Inverse folding.
């Protein structure tokens, strides 16, 4: 039986982030339960025969919200790679993802 003050179902990005912010509020007895035996959901990385695969592709960190972006980057402790990107949509060249960041 699990005894916890806060129970979170699903340990993907949303669940782990929720646990992080609940812990920041001073609640330490948190249980994050996942139907799988590994954490991360779509953002997890798996090892198969010495090959490493990102389940959800190589993740780009982008937010139009400056505070959200700074908070995300601070949690990664510099574990990022910077890329300059341009995306074509319809006939216009978009700078939407310019200066976006990827998790290493
Ligand atoms: C190919 C691809 C590329 C992407 N690229 C980016 C990107 O560049 N940038 C970006 O910001 N986002 C990107 N995303 C989106 C991002 O991966 C998802 O939005 C994010 O991971 C979703 O997190 P989540 O916690 O909401 O859901 P999930 O990651 O799906 O996590 C849900 C968790 O709940 C668990 N679960 C499900 N049912 C139950 C149950 N009944 N009981 C207990 N546990 C349960 C699952 O096992 C899973 O671990 C990409 C996604 C894909 C597929």
């Amino acid at each position: 039986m699990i005894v916890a003050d806060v129970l979170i179902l699903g340990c993907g990005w949303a669940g782990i982030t929720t646990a992080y912010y609940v812990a920041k509020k001073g609640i330490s007895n948190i249980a994050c339960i996942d139907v799988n035996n590994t954490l991360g959901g779509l953002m997890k990385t798996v090892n198969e025969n010495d090959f490493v695969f990102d389940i959800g592709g190589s993740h780009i960190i982008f937010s139009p919200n400056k505070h959200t972006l700074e908070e995300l980057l601070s949690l990664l402790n510099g574990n990022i790679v910077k890329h300059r990107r341009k995306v074509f949509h319809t006939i216009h060249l978009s700078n939407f993802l310019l200066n976006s960041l990827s998790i290493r």
Q: What stands out?
A: The CA atoms of residues 46 and 53 lie 5 Å apart. Helices lie at 13-24, 66-75. The beta strands are 6-9, 30-33, 45-48, 51-54, 60-61, 80-82, 87-89, 92-94, 101-103.
